[in-house]
UniProtKB/TrEMBL annotation:
Binding partners and assembly: Forms oligomers.
Identification of the protein by name: Transcriptional regulator MraZ
Main location: cytoplasm
Family in the record: Belongs to the MraZ family.
Originating gene: mraZ
GO MF annotation, one: DNA-binding transcription factor activity
SpoVT-AbrB domain segment(s): 5-47, 76-119
Matching Gene3D superfamilies: Transcriptional regulator MraZ domain
Length: 143
């Protein structure tokens, strides 16, 4: 399980040091891809396989299903770490998430999210303003 929030710096060479706590759950392999809301998603291999299985079952005749599969898979790639726990994020994913020097690495239960720090702070600020409303909607779903 991934929980917690870490502030890191993207190195000039494009490498990002991952928190050791998260690396332990990613050592059997991981996949990085475009996320939602402007961040990147990093899945451990087993969680990626669960998602891939669901994506395989989505109806190819539905435009939204095709679009979502493409968004999640076209720019996905395996992620590796060097001896210092750093990884190199592909430029196209850095561009997508508008990653600058300062980033946030956040645990979201089954995945890790990588955010540009400014984008993250703006997103969280807006979500906090709507916290009660979000909680009400989720309670209707039994959460």
């Amino acid at each position: 399980m991934f929980i917690g929030l870490y502030y890191h710096t993207l190195e000039a060479k494009g490498r990002l040091a991952f928190p050791a706590k998260f690396r332990r759950n990613l050592k059997k392999g991981s996949v990085i891809t475009r996320g939602l809301d402007g961040c990147l998603f990093v899945f451990p291999k087993d969680e990626w396989e669960k998602l891939a299985q669901k994506l395989r079952q989505s109806p190819v005749t539905r435009r939204e299903a095709r679009a979502f599969v493409r968004l999640m898979t076209h720019q996905a790639c395996e992620l590796g770490f060097d001896a210092q726990g750093r990884t190199r994020i592909p430029q196209y994913l850095k561009d997508f998430a508008r990653l600058a020097k300062h980033v946030v690495v956040a645990g979201t239960l089954t995945r890790v999210e990588i955010w540009d720090r400014e984008t993250y702070n703006q997103y969280i600020s807006e979500a906090e303003k709507k916290g009660g409303e979000i909680a009400e909607r989720l309670s209707e779903l039994g959460i």
